[in-house]
Design brief:
With 286 residues, the chain is an all-alpha fold. It is built from 14 helices and no strands. It is elongated and about 65 Å long.
């Protein structure tokens, strides 16, 4: 009589164990799927922040933030994508939300300051940078500090910050160009020329620095092109800039000659130089 009871208990135990195994397996599968989804989302986020179209990235991160509003990484992604899409005004409130998050970092505060500078809110950017501990030393932080000091005409501070920033990056061309432009606006043309030359030495494709270098030379009435790498089109554009600089200095005849040379040098029709020359000749005849 006891055999059926024992068999029943055994079957019940087997069924119970089977159910436990199934539940355990299901939980493991769910965890695996969650882990895979997290990896996939992280990979997709990385793609959106690098090679994807900036506006598509904004759409992706906007949707992701709505689905997971507590995730600071998604808010960072949205703010960064808005900056990439040249939508700094929209990025500012998003960065503010990031900075208010319990997991916010000093990098986030620096990025907020960057967005504020892009929108012309220099005083707000200055306050945000002041909230970052002085021990937090990064290239971006010091580059922004230098730009804010420039805007306040605090030249010694600006020079100090630019110098530190140059030492914190392996690609200093951009900050050297900014530093040179700062010197140019102060009327320190020889120092500006040196800094623009250093910028080009670090990145010989940085046309902005080439153009600024010509402006610095023109301000010193040096109307010869510097010996730097340049394409034929760039040469024509730099001659045009130099010609306008000569006119600004009152050396109109020299300026006209440089404009004619720019027109002859350009591999195509150089409309901007043609208009400048016509305007000069018209003024002279009048």
């Amino acid at each position: 009589m006891r055999h059926p009871l024992i068999l029943s208990l055994c079957l019940t135990s087997v069924v119970g164990l089977s159910a436990c195994d199934q539940l355990r397996a299901k939980n493991e599968v769910d965890r695996a799927i969650t882990a895979v989804n997290a990896v996939d989302q992280n990979n997709l986020s990385d793609i959106m922040l690098t090679v994807a179209d900036p506006n598509e990235a904004v759409t992706y991160f906007t949707r992701s933030v709505k689905e997971s509003p507590d995730r600071i990484d998604l808010r960072r992604g949205l703010a960064t994508s808005l900056i990439r899409a040249n939508r700094a005004t929209e990025a500012v409130p998003v960065w503010r939300k990031v900075v208010e998050h319990p997991q916010a970092t000093n990098d986030d505060r620096v990025d907020l300051a960057d967005a504020l500078i892009r929108t012309g809110k220099w005083d707000d950017a200055d306050k945000v940078l002041d909230s970052v501990p002085p021990t937090f030393e990064t290239f971006k932080r010091y580059r922004l500090e230098a730009m804010v000091a420039d805007s306040n005409q605090e030249w010694k501070k600006a020079d100090s910050f630019y110098e530190v920033a140059v030492g914190l990056t392996t690609r200093p061309a951009g900050v050297l160009n900014n530093w040179g432009y700062s010197k140019l606006t102060r009327g320190d043309y020889s120092d500006a020329e040196r800094l623009f030359t250093d910028a080009i030495r670090n990145d010989d494709k940085l046309f902005t620095a080439k153009n600024n270098l010509v402006l610095a030379r023109g301000a010193q009435r040096n109307y010869t092109l510097p010996v730097i790498p340049m394409t034929q089109t760039e040469r024509a554009q730099l001659l045009h800039t130099l010609g306008l600089a000569a006119v600004k200095q009152g050396d109109v005849s020299t300026g006209k000659g440089l404009l004619r040379e720019a027109i002859e040098t350009h591999p195509q029709h150089f409309e901007a130089a043609v208009r400048s020359l016509r305007a000069l000749e018209s003024n002279v005849s009048n």
